[in-house]
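Quick start: read one record
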Amino acid sequence: MSTTAPSPAITHSVPTTQAAVPPAELSLEERMAFIDAAMTVRLEEAAVAYEVNTAHIPTEPVDLADVLTVPLTPTLQPPTPYPTPVAALLQRAHHRLLTGGWCSGALVDAEGARCLYGAIHAEARGDQNLESRGLQVLMDAIRRKFTDVDSVPSFNDGFASGRIPMRMLDQAADLAHARGL
């Protein structure tokens, strides 16, 4: 008799597929929150990249006097004059440039605007000693910030606008006052 061994039961697992669950619909606020988070990450990465890419570029601090300006009018009244003669001269010259205008390349231009030297010369009213002392203090003030300047006219003519030359004249008046000149 032949005996046959029972055959092992073959089990086939039939994969059952479950229906895919559709993603839950996000509300507008949730979508905006996700976009905000993604953009924040991208902006932070861009800021770091910018810092790395520009770290080698030398920069100079911004002087707020170059940024903040006030309107100047011909009716601008002169400030209370300094009690010392050289400081008062430089202050008058500064006021003359504020009201009459600044120029470069000439002592006085066709419209009556003056350069630094022209304003000091006009306000000294013929007193050459006062004029030379005023120019000397102005050069001292200029050389505190601009070391390569050789004269007041060359400093004046090195600028396209009078903002910096006039500021230096104002600082020279303060310097003369502090020195008691």
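The CA atoms of residues 83 and 128 lie 19 Å apart.
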